[in-house]
Fold this protein.
Amino acid sequence: MNRILLSNISRFIILLLLQVLVFQRISNGFSSSGFNYFNIFVYPVFILLLPVNLPTALAIAASFVFGLSVDWFYNSPGMHAGAAVLTAFLRPVVLGILEPRGGYPAGGGPTQNLLGPAWFARFSAILLSLHLLMYFIIQFFSFVYTPEILLSTVVSFVMSYIFVIMYQFLLNPKV
Amino acid sequence: MYGLIAILNRYSGIITFVILEAVCMYLVVKYNKNQQEIYLNSANTISGAIYQQYNKIMQFAELSVVADSMAEENARLYARLGNAKFNEYLVKDSTLVRDSLNHIRQQYVYTSALVINNSISLANNYITINRGSKHGIAPGMGVFSSRGVIGVVRSVSENFAQVISVLHQQTRISASLKNSGYFGTLRWKEQGDISHMTLETLPKQTIINKGDTVQTSGYSYIFPEGLLIGTIERYDVEPGSNYYAAQVKLFEDMGRLKYVYVINNLLRKEQEKLIQSETLPQKK
């Protein structure tokens, strides 16, 4: 139990720092050169890997706090948090759809270590794209910009997805 | 009681979700300028109509009618100035050819408009005016006032148009010095400073003095030549470059715009077509 808590807290810190110190700068570099549709989001991994049996309300609250922390650095109160809250809310639904035949291993998060790379690839693709879509809907904030929202989501998804998968394989967390 | 707790427990996820998402949306609209702007959507017809009403209440009815008619009159007079005309005199082998009696053609016509919403404090500022597609306004048209260049129309609804203010990071206006004729690009670089802009890429041999008047160069299809912009306040050669960068003090106080004029370049299509055909020669 303690190990799960510890691993989630350290993931909170590592992903937050990675996001704001590394990936935010990369994205900023692209937007200052005029290409605005490009963002790399790795931080949703925190939400994806929350323990499977964590009550939804708690998962949403944790994601809200985490999203707000990201917003703190991005100077965009509520934007990342809004997307994070939706992702946390939809996660049990996706988990339900993708549930393996024997159910989920007790305790811990749905890592590729426990459930296999193919399963994790599908799981993270669904939630990451939903997260990005929600984020860009909040960012553009009007359906007048539907083409921009979709373009941003697709472009950002490709890059973010690569890094999300890389994070899983490089650190390969057990819980 | 037990039943209530059971229900709360059962729906705790969705309740938390709705509450926290509402908090997020509140934060987004409250603290993010762009979203706030979209939320208030100034080009939106409904809120535009509200601004319009507000403005009407704020002005004395009589006064606004008088001023409107004067603004229209001004627009007409601007159209009669020399720089609004296109000279069709054709000199061929030193012989003057006149193909018709109307050798001076109208190139620019102007529409007067009232500013009904204006921002100056953002990184990218926009202005809303009370003229729209119904009045012949289209995206890409220039906007100026009696004291300077104001911006370029970005989007139009039926009755209103949203104008990209010159106080916008993407502003690029071709401007020249009235005395010497050298030209450069006018940009807004010092965010928060609404009375200054920077004139860049003036070649090093430019004859430039403090207090020189800066005006539009006419090297675009948006603004005619000779619209006022401001005066040179100080100038410097950018280190490591062959160009001057000059700080221009604007004539217009962007913080208190009222009457503006929208420029319609009647020959714009032709100019655009020519430029496109040059840059895309292979396209068939």
